[in-house]
Amino acid sequence: EPHLSFLREAMGVMQHHDAVTGTEKQAVAADYARRLEVAIRACATNTKEILNQLTIDTSRNTPERELGKRERRWATGPKKEYLFKFETCTLLNISSCAVPEQADKFTLTLYNPLAQTVTDYVRVPVPNVNYIVKDFDDVTIETQFLPVPAPVQDLNFRKSSATYELVFTATELPALGYKSYYITKTNGNNMKPVPDPPN
Amino acid sequence: QSSFTSIGNEFIRLNFDTNGFLVTVTSDGMTRIVNQEFVYYEAATGNNREFRNRSSGAYIFRPARDQVRSIALQPKLKIYRGDLVEEVHQSFNEWVSQVVRVYRQQRHAEFEWLVGPIPVDDGKGKEIVSRFNSDISNADIFYTDSNGREMIKRKRDHRDTWKLKLLEHTAGNYYPITTKIALEDDTARMAILTDRAQGGSSMGAGSLELMIHRRLLHDDAFGVNEALNETAYGEGLVARGTHYLIVGSSKKNQSPTTQAIERFTQLQKLLPAWSLFSNAENISYEDWR
Predict the structure, then answer these.
(1) Contact B94 A71 (CB under 8 A)
(2) What is the rounded distance in angstroms from the CA atom of residue A57 to the CA atom of residue A172?
(3) Distance between CA atoms of residues B14 and B244, nearest Å
(4) Quick check: A52 contacting B, CB < 8 Å?
C-alpha cells in the first residue's frame, strides 16, 4: 500500500498543466521523470508479490488428475516454490533490458491488461542470435532475429549490449491474465539476419 | 514500374521505390499512392514584444514560414525478411532513421522513427514532422481523435462556428492528436495511430502529418522563460517512437471495417502486454514448468 500511495502521489503531481503539456522548465521535467521512475520502480514489488502469488496459486490449484502424463512424472514430491523477481524494463522502448542482455536463461512473463484475449509479437533485446523460446507446454516457439538498427545517433545515447531483437509470437494471452516463456541461450550458431542484396 | 521492393503479408503490402521512399500501399484489394517523408518547419524567432511577434516555443507552435524543408532525398535501405516479420531499415541522414515493419497476419504497418540530435548550428530551431501523402481525395476534411475516443471532423482553413481569417496558416490548422488522425474518400481510408500525444494536421490534399520532435532556441515569453531545447549527454535529445499505419476500404458494409481494425489496433498498442523478466539461471526448465 505505501508503494501504491507513493505512485498515486507522483501521478497527482503529474496532473499539473506543466507536466501534462511539457511547459515546465527542463530541471522540473527531469524531476517529474525522476519521481515517476522511483514510484514505478517501488511498485515493482507489488507486481512481483501478486504474480508470485498467482503462479503459486496456479501450481497449487492444478489438481494432479489435470496434469498430463509428462507433468505427473515431474510432479513427484513436494512442489518447490520459486519466488521470481519479475523485473520490469523501462528502457524496452529503446531496445535495452539488463536481464535478457546478461542472463543465459531467463523467463518472460507477459501480463495482458485487456479484457480480451490477445495475440501479439514480442521483441526482446539480446546480445546475439542463439536463443530458443519454450512455453509452459514444452513447445519450442518459432523465433526470428533482427538487428537493432544502430544509426549513428544511437551509438551515443543507447547504453546497451543488445545488438539484436528476438521476435516471437505470444499467442492467446488470456484476458487480464498472463503467460510465461522460458528463454535459453544455446551453443548453436543460428544464422545472423542478412539484408536483401542491394538493388 | 519504379517500385523496386516491397514488404507485407496477405492483408497489407508496402512498396518502396528506387529512391528508398514508400510509394504505394496495397490493402483490401486496392493499391493507393501513399508516400511517407520526414520534413521540418523552421521555427519563428520573434522579439516577443507584441503578441504577434512571439517565437515558437514550449507553449506555441509557430513556424517561420509555411513551407517545409525536406530532410533527405534518398534514404539508404536495408531490408530484412523472415517468417514472422519483414522490415525496411531506412537511414535518411545522421539524425533521422526509421524502421518500417509488417508482421505476419497483422493488418497494420509499423513506422518506428528515431530522430535527434536535431542540429541547430545554423542558429535555427526546427520542428520535425512525419508526413504521409496519399491520392485519397479527402476534400480538405480529416479526423482527429479526442482523448482516444470520438473522432472530431476537421476541415483545413475552416471553423464551424465562425468565419475564419487565419493569420498563422500552418499553426492555425494544427490540432492535438492523442491517439489517431485519419482521412478518407468514398473508396479508401488512411489512419495513423500514435504511441503518444502529438500535434497533427492535414496541410494538403490526401496528406496527414504528425510532429514528432522539436528543438527550439528562443523562449516564447509565455511564462517558462526557457527555450524548448532539451538535451541529453550535452547533445540535443534523441527521440524514438512508433506510428501505426492502417489503409483500407472506407466502405462500412465490410467486416471487419477499417475503423474496427483501427480500434482494435489502438487498444492493443496503447494497452500492450506488460513484459516482466526473471533471471532463471538457478531453475531448470522442468522445475520452472
Answers:
(1) no
(2) 21
(3) 13
(4) no
